[in-house]
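Re: beginner question about structure tokens

> Can someone show what the tokenized structure looks like for a real chain? I only ever see the sequence side.

Sure, here's an example I had lying around. Input first:
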Amino acid sequence: MTRPVDRLLFGTAGVPKSSPHTSTLSGVRRIAELGLDCQEVEFVQGVKMGIDTAREIRGEAERLGVGLSVHAPYWVNLNSVEDSKRYMSQQRLLHSARLARELGARSVVFHCGFYHKDTPEQVFETIKVGLREVMSILRSERNPVVMRPETMGKRAQFGSLEEILFLCQEVEGLQPCLDFSHLYSREGRANTYLHFHRILTKVTKKLGDGALEDVHIHISGAMYNDKGEMKHLNLQESDFRYDDWIQALKHFDVKGMVICESPEQDVDARMLKKLYYG
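And the corresponding structure tokens:
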């Protein structure tokens, strides 16, 4: 499902917890049974799936009408002080994008890296150069998968809303992954209708009206401290104002995928879909 969708899809990060088996194929079937719409295939501990398996999953997802996306490995740091680690980070992104194509996935979500001791401006330039090289290779391969740098919840990580949107302006082919729980955890605010409205308005101003026609969103409750996000929570156990968030999405008629990352991700995803379409 590499084409943009004409509505907002709701699904889970990884195989739903209620799935009888832990395989991605079982997860896709469980998504359909739950009345959900999509699943993010988690390569966060490494890309270990073979091409034949990916193609089998693609066939089943297409048969059931389940949209797919991919999350690249956590071991991506395009601002590493070591050349070899920056190179391997690029290779992990390329590997994820190539397998995402076999899966029929629309997007690949990834974390850009850490600031370390560099200034934000230096980090931005280093990451920009690395991603331009990745995108050039994917274009040469005619890979249609959308690469999506994620807004991050820890202040030590590159990934404020402004940084991610500017990166998408500067590197052809990038679109953001908007993690609203990360945005809230990072700054300790962004938790009212007005905040959500401002975020979505900023996306359209920076990337154009079409950006909200094809979004990729992460959502969960979150526990956080002065350094940012600590861990995910179920939405009803957190102080995240998801009713306000739903209203902001409706106001902008957002289309694309919402991926729930709560501990009970299938329960929260179903609740959010019911609230949005109910």
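Each token stands for a local structural state, so reading them left to right follows the chain. The mean pLDDT is 95.
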